[in-house]
Amino acid sequence: MKATNIIFFFITFVHLSSENCNIIMCNLKGKSLKQSRLTSADIDTTVCPYLTISFAEFDNDALVVDKQVSETFPWMWVAKAKNPNFKLVLCFYNAVGVEEFYDMYRTPEKRLKFIPLLVTYLRNNKFDGVQVELAVGYGLWSPLRYNIDRWADFMEDIQKAFTEEAKSSGKPKLLLFGHIDSRKEDYDPLYHVPRIYKYSDFVIVDAWPYYPLRIGPKYNISITNTHHTRIYSEHQGDFSNIDYNVKTILRKGGIKEKTVISLYLMAEFYRRVFGLGFPRYDWVKYDNYGAVGAIMSQGGNVTRVFDNCPIFMSDRTVIYYDDEISLTEKVKYIKTKGLAGFEISDMSADDFKGVFGRGKFPLMRAVNEECRKP
Prior knowledge:
Pfam families: Glyco_hydro_18
Organism: Biomphalaria glabrata (Bloodfluke planorb)
Number of helices: 11
Protein name: Chitotriosidase-1-like isoform X1
Strand order of the largest sheet: 1-2-16-10-8-7-6-5-3-4
GO molecular function: chitin binding; chitinase activity
Strand content: 15-25%
Shape: globular
Helix content: 25-40%
Distance between the termini: 46 Å
Order of helices and strands: EEHEEHHEHHEHEHEEHEEEHEEEHEH
Structural class: alpha/beta
GO cellular component, one term: extracellular region
């Protein structure tokens, strides 16, 4: 069993006069629950009524849900009873290179045996859908244990099963969320983009760029010439921006009306290193918006770059982060492009305790406010 990782995706279907920006998603990871002290009492289900919990995985020919995950079910059921708009989604999360998982989805008989087990589990535990995600990255890639077409077949069979079950049961159809990380060319062989979009109700796309962990003259990276969530490129050949990643997916066959862009909004903290010749700033940590407010109260300056992205600077500290102003720009981008919506990839990145003095979850409330505008 993988290390415990609980993810809550909160999706707000906002009633709009237009057809874009109608989905808002928030993601809370298990390690963030422990490290940030975010609790269920902090969560406002009226702001984010769709919750996806992760993870479940395939193991020993069965759907296996981590004990720490299943222990959260009673709280979720109570919350769902109190709020009719509150929905539950299960994240089915597996690493690319796991041979047993690969053997299941590439073999028609085995995947058609597994999918009914998935449907039964979702219904028995009051879930309203599933997100199907591949764990990719260093040490997980294995070209001998992946088949791009069989993975698309797996998505197709899940959607067929959901549709048939809804017809026979008379219940609302279970939702299928796809997931794509196409920020590196190495990941291209993993996704048959047109088919994943065809069979998914919505597709979550990792859209934040990769960025350096060191800045300063020594590394030929200006402090104010980078930001980890900038929207557009500043020069030809700049691929580290949201717009490039979105256009890449759409060019490969993505459907904009189904595309939910996912952004990592944890603030990036850097500290100046002295005594090494050139001025240099090394990465220190990720932290949330509340922690940014605590540092800013001690004095310093805020500079805005690119698309109103803020950078806080003091004598020894540089922080790259997002605030209500910069997120408003990102929502405007989503609406301009006609995309389905927005996901914050870790909900604990917001100021969930109200440290900034702007109320709880000011970032998510800013997203909601801008999405609701015509």
